[in-house]
Structures are given as structure tokens and as C-alpha cells.
Hints:
The protein has helices at 23-35, 51-63, 82-93, 110-116, 133-142, 167-180, 237-244, 256-267, 270-296, 321-331, 360-378, and strands at residues 9-10, 76-79, 99-104, 120-127, 130-131, 150-153, 183-187, 214-219, 231-235, 301-302, 310-314, 333-334, 336-337, 350-354. With 383 residues, the chain is an alpha/beta fold. The chain folds into 2 domains: 9-21 and 272-378, Aspartate Aminotransferase, domain 1 (Alpha-Beta Complex), CATH 3.90.1150.10; 23-270, Aspartate Aminotransferase, domain 2, CATH 3.40.640.10. The strands form 3 sheets. Strands 2-9-8-7-6-3-4-5 form an 8-stranded mixed beta sheet, with helices on both faces. Strands 10-11-14-13 form a 4-stranded antiparallel beta sheet, covered by helices on one side. Strands 1-12 form a two-stranded parallel sheet.
Amino acid sequence: MLSRSEGVIDLAWGHPSDRLHPLVALKPAVDEVFARGDIAALQYSGYQGYGPLIQSLAGFLSDEPCYTGPIKPENLYIGYGASHGLDVACTLFTRAGDTVWVEEPSYYLVRQVLIDHGLNIVGVPTDERGMDVAAAALMLERGDIPSPTLVYVIPTYHNPMGTVMPTDRREALFDLAEKSDFLVASDEAYHLLHYGEPPPPPMAAYDRSDDGRVISLGSFSKILAPGIKLGWVHARLGLVDRFTHAGANFSGGNNNFSGAIVDVAIRTGLLGEHLANLRATYRDRVGVMADGLASALPGASFHVPGGGYYFWVTLPDGIAASELERQALEAGVTLRPGPAFSGEGLFTDCIRVCFALSESDEIAEGLRRLGTAYAGLRGATPA
Length: 383
């Protein structure tokens, strides 16, 4: 974010725009923490997280239509965000040299988390319905690829594709995890950001095992503010117990102060109001981006997402994402090229553009600039 250039419209980074940070709205929540003399907010945390937040979050999620309630407090662990949850899962459930399967394409920044743990990363074919579980089953049957200890998926409003894994594939993925003895780490940072019909329940809802096969990773970064640095693990009791008793928790636990603020935000309705505003704002931006892409990139194809932050665009033959990225930057707009999301350098004809960071008028202008760059590559007159 510090490297953003003046005058350049940013459609690359997956961050909320400045005006969507609830700076003024959160102040009463911060004030209340001090006004009620909540010393616990400044003390070391319990191993599972800040107790009142665990309770209020369970109630909040239980009331959301994209969850299947009730969510019990004992099925939640409070951490620092979805990526932190994955990092702890790797510490607890993998060893260096183990294999992790990921969607191809997948969230590009998560790869370093897996590399840091010395894990072997294998890509699994992914389409408009998420990870191709049938293809994964065939990969296991062939036996020429190391079987996974962990499978990382983004089933809801996928980053970068914006797609949603339907119920039948979620069930099939759990069944495959049971059969083949691996853990599913489901990154659901965007699960609550739906702009129409709610998505299927989180992956943890499909876990019918006794000790747990699925961890659903949630985050307040996308629904409140990234600087809060809090998230949650939603899983069967046995898995939550493993997170709760991770060694790092014994030396102080997690962020009680942020937890106390978020607890007040939930109990006073602030989080619900903010989430409703985000949904309305992003719904409008989806329309602006869909119209702008259709005008700017004739011949390209894309899916209009029902939630999340991103459009995934496939360019027509002869247009390379890397070259369009270069030309677009010269025109004053940024994007993320497809190979960034592939461990094998695939998707050279795809780009990801984000509608969360820029305002609607900036999105429209950014796509106009992108259209100019695109037309230059095609030798055509911009629309």
C-alpha cells in the first residue's frame, strides 16, 4: 500500500477503500472498553481467545443466513486472521516435507506460508465450481503424486476467481478427506460478503467426523478492518482444542484488546450495520466493474461474482496478461496478472481486478484506462 503511486488507479490490491474503514463508528466501542473498566482487555488472553468475543461471535454467526446455526462457542478459536489460522494449522498438523494440495489458481500470498513450513505444494485443477474434487480423487488413485496431509481451498468467492463451490462439491471434498486421511483448511475470509443470495454454509458445516476433518478460517479483516488483526477458526471440538493448546498460546494467548473492541462492536450492532453497508457498497461496485469490463475488454470473458472482492477475466487469444499489465500501468491503472496465482506459471491469458479498494468513479476511470491499453495491444480504437 505504501508503494501506491500518485495518479495511478489501483485495481490490483485486495484492500477496502479508505472511506470504508469505520474509524468514527468504532470510537464508541473503544470508549466503552475503557468506560466499563474492563481490565481483562489489557490482560493476557485465555488460550481460546477473549471469552466475551467468543460468545458474541457465536451468536452473530448463528444469526447469519450463510451459516447453519447454532454455532457453539466451543467450536470457535480466536486468532489473528485467516492466514494466521492456516499458519497455526501447518504448525499443528504438518511436518516439513509433507504435501499440501491447493487450487490452481489460488491466493498467491498464501504460498509463502506453506513454503515457510517446508511443505511440498501441488496444484489441483479448479473451475467455475471450485476445486475439481473428481480430478483430485483421480490424482489420489493414480498414486504418482504425493498424497496430501492438508488441502487448502477458498470455496466461497474464491480469490482470484470469485466463484463459489456448490454444496455437492463441498460434501464430496469432505468425503474424500475422510477416505484419504487429510485435513481441509478452508479460507472463508469473504464468506460474509455476499451481495445477493447467500452462499452455501462454511466447509466446517459439512464435517461429520468425530475428531474433525475441516477447519473454516474466518477474518474480521474483510468485514470490519484489517488493522483489527483478528479472525477465527470454526471447527469440531477436537480441532479447536488443538488450536487452543498450541504452544504459542501458553505465552499470552491472543489479542484481548482488539477482542474487547470487536465484542462491543458485535453486541451494539455496529458490526452488523457496517457489514450491511459493505454489502450495499460492493454490490454497486460489482455493477460498475461488470459494465466497465464489458466495454473496455471486448472479446474477453468473465464471471460476475456474487460476493467477495474480485473479477477474474480471461483475455482473448494473442493478449498476454503480463503485457497488458505493463501497458495498463503506463496508462495509469494497475491489475494482477494470472500467473501470480499459479505455482506453475499458468493463466498467462488471465487477469484479476479488484473492486474493493477504489471508489466507483475510480473503477470506471481505471477500466477506461485499461481499455485504452487493451485496444493498443489489439491495434483497435478504444471503446
